[in-house]
Amino acid sequence: MLTRAIQQIVERRLSTTPAVALLGPRQVGKTTLALAVASSYEGAVVLDMEREADRAAVAQPDLFFPRHRDRLVVLDEVQHAPSLFAALRPEIDAQRRPGRFLLLGSASGDLLRQSSESLAGRVSYVELTPLLAAELAADLGTLQTLWLRGGYPLSYLAADDAAAFQWRQDFVRTFLQRDLPGMGLRVPAETLRRFWTMLAHLQGQLFNASQLALSLGGVSHTTTARYLDTLVDTMMVRRLEPHLANVGKRLVKSPKVYVRDSGLLHALLGIASVRELQGHPVAGPSWEGFVVEQVAAALPAGAQMGFFRTVAGAEIDLVVERGRRKIGIEIKFSSKPKPLRGFWQALQDLGIDRAAVVAPVARAYPLTEGVEVLPVTSVNEWLSEATR
User: Fold this and answer.
1) DSSP string, 269-332
2) Among the listed residues 244, 253, 331, the one whose alpha carbon sits nearest the alpha carbon of residue 292
3) Beta bridge partners of 374
């Protein structure tokens, strides 16, 4: 079984906080992680809110919760039982000891809204991503497999690329036909698949709701924006906002969009092997999105991430701010990366403290003073040092 790096974070939060909400998309391993955490709590109670019998067990929460005040209670897929949030607040207040509740949810937007209204100051949020490069062996072969298949454990660990591809195709179908309707979304599955596939073709590009609405036909730009909100809330798509610095220049203000898991991106585009991927026009944008996810997962507490682009062409893929520290990250799909002129201009415009170019290289090396070339497996360590 794979040990997830975030397990220690969840355990640490539970040791200081009454409730921890573990967010993550379907099939990413939340239940497996929760069971691993719960194994160290004697008599932990684990309930799945998708099961009718488990929902019935907590139908009277004012009776059920007090009976288990000495145990960790794990509530899986808790977004399917929104009425529990109102009951959790007085129960936590009645006994505010650490490690009382571990809440697992697949729809971050809904879960955050529901829990923030009822559990403000009582819950700590942790996001479980698909598998990360830093959690696996550092060799290039492993990295290539992770990039192709994505980080969903059952895809990454499949017997071969064909089996991994089939798993992801089935995942997409189930997500659209069962999971989204189960969350109350009344949109034809084929319409949302077309929209999702369009986003895959536009990986790493600016989001233009009106243009996508025309391509879908018969929908408004507000509808396409709502579709995007849905895929963002379910953690299928990342909406990367621009870094709006006060630099006295005209800035691009539309967000960029990425299909978050590279394996799902490739499944949507019908890419089943490394050979197909390497010759596909999406290879560069796919690598960019893959690295964006590694950086996002490695951000230290309090850090913010966006991209920077001016109308005149100064551009940097990621700008990370933490306090007064500001660092830049450029992403290149090349073993000998050479940033363009716009990158150097962006560093000057923003007054970047340190910068890195993340590329498919075996080891780190300096590019110029203050700018390093990094393999993706070094992102965690470099970010930690650069934002200190």
Assistant:
1) TT--SHHHHHTSTTHHHHHHHHHHHHHHHHPPTT-EEEEEEBTTS-EEEEEEEETTEEEEEEE-
2) 331
3) 358
What does the block give as tokens for 96?
């505010």
How far, in Å, CA of 178 to CA of 206, rounded? Answer: 29
CA distance 357 to 364: 10
Instruction: Tally the residues of the chain.
Output: 388
Give the whole-angstrom CA distance, residue 241 versus residue 243: 7
- Residues 272-328: pLDDT tens digits? 999 999 989 999 999 999 999 999 999 988 899 999 999 989 999 999 999 889 999
Q: Which two tokens stand for residue 1?
A: 């079984």
Rounded CA separation 379/376 (Å): 5
How many CB atoms neighbour CB 153 within 10 A?
17
Q: What is the pTM of this model?
A: 0.93
Report residue 381: phi and psi, to 5°: -65, -40
Residue from 226, 206, 19, 249 nearest 116 by CA: 19
Question: What kind and span of H or E run contains 45?
Answer: strand 45-48
Gap between the Cα atoms of 211 and 214, Å rounded:
5
Residue 297 amino acid letter: A
Look up residue 2 and give its amino acid.
L
CB 79 within 8 A of CB 53: no
Distances (CA, A) of 319 to 102, 223, 311, 366: 33, 30, 17, 19
Give the residues across from 373 on adjacent strands: 357, 365
Tokens of 289: 């999105």
At residue 224, what is the residue type? Answer: T
d(CA 127, CA 25): 9
Helix/strand/coil for 29 = coil
| pLDDT, tens only, 17-27 | 999 999 999 99
Which region holds residue 357: left if phi is over 0, alpha if psi is between -120 and 50, else beta? beta
Helix axes 83-94, 108-119, angle to 10 degrees: 40
Tokens of 272: 């089943």
Looking up tokens 């309707």 gives 181
Pairing of strands 123-127, 19-23: parallel
Question: What 8-state DSSP symbol labels residue 176?
Answer: I
Pull the structure tokens for residue 13: 């939060």
* Element spanning 9, H or E: helix 6-14
